[in-house]
Design brief:
The chain has one domain: Aminopeptidase (3-Layer(aba) Sandwich). By secondary structure, the protein is of the alpha+beta class. It contains 5 helices and 14 strands. Bound molecules: coenzyme A. The site of coenzyme A (COA) has 20 residues, from strand 7, helix 3 and helix 4. Coenzyme A binds next to strand 7, helix 3 and helix 4.
């Protein structure tokens, strides 16, 4: 059927890790306008489950309606419960293009796309659904000839940030956006994996001031790790000439 696609591992766990855990078949499909009600309903359920409203920027019905008209822009994960996760790419207008916030030149902005929004129903977390959908989006964007992909992530959202960094994105900026909320701006080049030099600093995810200084001095955030004092973000410079370079490319999951 149009819009459907094969998945190598066609089963996911509902209530993963709980006594009620179940193994269920699922399907990843491209979304269209007819999925609007399901997307809005899921966005509402996910928003209600969050510890802080800052984590997820809510999108309006009008926004989704327009976005879902674009071919291959929306992806959904379906089980017997219906739509349990969605993700959306967006080709931004010039004035909202995050490429200009990560240093892309004017002529590059038309090759930049956004991973706009992703949400997984709480009962289905832990199945790498964000990463599975992002992989498919990146494949679509490559096929469409895009080179640059940007997204925003809250410093209060280590789950999403970890997924981005593990898929080869780097933190290029940290800014106040969306009604005074801090957001990392993460970036990935689809044609050239970014080579990251040896680690120069690791600071707490919640230490905004130190991260602003590191980014200001030209470092990029490239890894998350959990230490005794909480979650740390590792920073390094792009490029370098030693063997200790990390090549930022997504490992297969
Ligand atoms: C961010 C999000 C999409 C990740 O969902 P996912 O793809 O299911 O996450 P993963 O499979 O990578 O989860 C990895 C681990 O983190 C846990 N986890 C993921 N999201 C979590 C959350 N919001 N709260 C608590 N634990 C979470 C998973 O249970 C899993 O744990 P395990 O390794 O012990 O099994 C999901 O948390 C979500 O929908 N959050 C609300 C919306 C949001 O933040 N969107 C992103 C905006 S940038």
């Amino acid at each position: 059927m149009a819009g459907r696609m094969a998945e190598i591992s066609p089963q996911i766990k509902k209530h993963k890790g709980l006594p009620s855990e179940e193994l269920l078949s699922f399907e990843m499909q491209f979304l269209r306008e007819g999925h609007l009600a399901g997307v809005l309903d899921l966005q509402e359920q996910v928003a209600k489950s969050l510890p802080s409203a800052e984590i997820l920027r809510l999108h309006s019905g009008r926004f989704f309606e327009k976005a879902l008209r674009a071919e291959r822009a929306g992806l959904g994960i379906f089980t017997g419960d219906g739509l349990v996760a969605f993700s959306l790419i967006c080709i931004p207008p010039r004035e909202r293009n995050l490429g200009s916030e990560v240093g892309l030149g004017e002529e590059e902005l038309c090759k930049a796309a956004h991973l706009q929004v992703v949400a997984v129903h709480p009962a289905y977390r832990g199945n790498s659904l964000q990463r599975r959908m992002a992989e498919r989006h990146l494949q679509v964007l490559r096929e469409m000839g895009y080179e640059h992909v940007c997204s925003t992530v809250s410093p209060q959202n280590p789950f999403s940030l970890r997924n981005f960094l593990e898929q080869g994105f780097v933190i290029k900026a940290l800014k106040v956006k969306f009604a005074s909320q801090w957001r990392y701006i993460v970036y990935k080049n689809l044609l050239r994996p970014i080579a990251i030099g040896p680690e120069e600093a690791a600071v707490s995810l919640s230490d905004i001031a130190s991260q602003l200084e590191l980014l200001e001095s030209g470092l990029l955030g490239f890894d998350l790790r959990t230490g005794p004092s909480g979650i740390l973000v590792a920073y390094a410079r792009e490029g370098g000439s030693t063997e200790s370079l990390h090549l930022k490319e997504a490992p297969p999951h």
